[in-house]
Every structure is written in structure tokens, then in C-alpha cells.
């Protein structure tokens, strides 16, 4: 089955003046294909202004809800986000890839743990799925959410979060942070070192957090991660999802010359020659092949493939673990071949 299928939009919910949630109708024959884990995302493919674009958005619904729902925040000059917020209508259809992503949470209903999450802006979308799943499926676990925005009016899911807090008063604790509005029982400013220290050293000092989930701007994720590690939270228990990245990355290897590339994709083998200065993904796309991809910026995991022969170096890698890299996995949008021949397998991932 093609990983992209046309799905009908059955509801559009205006969350804030700048954000809408899209709820998709999934035919019964496709239900199994669109099952997902809390924290995963969907990729959309469409033609806009004569150009194919692909964009990924995190699922904010829970796996057991029966809903396939994402939230799209409109950003300045954002091609798809502007279209989604202003043009899409109930009844329209979009090409939707089956769920993907490595930023996941899998509950265990016999477990009793403490979890924490730090989110900013639209970074709340996968966090909401994780948070609700934990509350619903681990009935004795607790969850602390630190959520930063400019104002309450711009806070996605504000009303829903307050309702959840009321319904799970002994298990869900929310710390709202506003950078442009001073509100009672909230923090003023941004999520920074003092905020994290207040959470782990003061207000929740008696909590041992099994896992901490981060989603928001790259700088916030880096700062929060550093402070959590300073407070003896292991890096393996800190999980993050990037929506944008300011890191360009770099290559130490010599990228002069060409490489022979053998690509395994959809059970077909294609051989061609590419410049080492190109990314493997760009070279594959230039062959009119259709590999999986979305962001092309090294912040999603759609374009992962396995290098089965030869070597490649990635400009940046904020997703794959050292063990996964050792197993031959690469982000093809960031990988440049460094040997005379490489074999890249998109099927065996």
C-alpha cells in the first residue's frame, strides 16, 4: 500500500486565532495503517502554487481516542500553515502519510511513575497526546507540565488543559509560563534555567521523574536538557522533538568528486552517480524516485535509511542514537557519501 492516502477532513477546530486542529476521517479499510503511538506525527503532501510541498505535524489525539487529529499553527510566510488556517474546509481531502516518528511514549497500565514535560507554543501538540495517554492508561502515574506561551489567548489547548487539570487534580500539575502577560498562579518570562530549577529543585523536589519530554524551539530544548542533566536526570530519560532547527551542521570529510550510489526503494534497485557535495536525499530525488521525506532539515525522521555498504557523514544528527548510527542508519537529508560507492536501503528500516 502507498504510504500516502487521501483522507477527508471531517472537522476543523479553531484552537486560537493562529491555530486550527484538523480531524481526519479514516476509512475502516485503512484503520490499521493509521494506528499510532503517542508523540508521533503525520506528513501531508500537496501541490500549492504549482509546487509539491510536504509538511509534518504532530498528532495531538491519543491512540485510543479513535481520532486522527493534528494542530497547525500559522507562521509568518508559512505556505501550508497559512493555507490550513485560512483555506481548508470540512470535506476537503489531503494526502496523508501513515504515522511516523521516534518521539514516542508507550504506557504500561501496571506502572506507577512521575513524568514531566516542557513545551513552548505549538510544541504542546505531541506533548498533549503523551500527557493524556499517561493519565488515561497509567492510572497511578503523575504528570508535571511546564508550558510556555506569550499570553493565555495564544495558548493552544488552554481550556482543555484546565479541564484535564480539574479532572486529574491529584495527578496532573501544570505550570503556565507567559512572556507577555502577567497572570495569577503563573510564571512570567520564558522557560529558562531558573524555571527548570524551580520545578525540579523546589516545587517538585520530592518527585523522581522517570522520563522528561521536551518540545519547542531548539534553544529551549538545549537549555532545559543541560539543566536537567545538572540535576542528575539521565540523558537517556530526556526525550525531545524539534519543530525547527537553527543548526546548519558541518562536514569534516572531503566532498570533492563523485560516488556510485545503489538505492533500494520499494523493492526496486536503482544505480546512479552523484556528487559527494550533494545530500543523498537530494540525489535520490533528482533521479525522479519517491523516497520518504518531509522536513529536509534533519529534524524529523521520515528520510531515515540504512547504509549497507560504504560510508557517509551527516552534517547534523539530532535524532539518531549512537547505537542506531553504528547499525548503519542515516538521515539521508543530512548524509553525504564519503566512499567511492554506497548502498542505501530505504526498505530495511
Give a quick precis of the structure.
This is Phenylacetate-CoA oxygenase/reductase, PaaK subunit. Residues 259-349 form the 2Fe-2S ferredoxin-type domain. Helix content is 19%, strand content 34%.
Secondary structure layout:
Layout: E1 4-16, E2 19-25, E3 41-48, E4 51-58, E5 68-73, H1 79-86, E6 93-97, E7 114-120, H2 124-137, E8 142-149, H3 158-167, E9 172-178, E10 187-188, H4 193-203, E11 209-216, H5 218-230, E12 238-242, E13 258-265, E14 268-275, H6 280-286, E15 304-309, E16 312-314, H7 322-326, E17 329-331, E18 335-337, E19 341-345
Parallel strand pairs: 7-8, 7-11, 8-9, 9-10, 11-12, 13-19
Antiparallel strand pairs: 1-2, 1-6, 2-5, 3-4, 3-6, 13-14, 15-17, 15-19, 16-18
Helix pairs in contact: 4-5
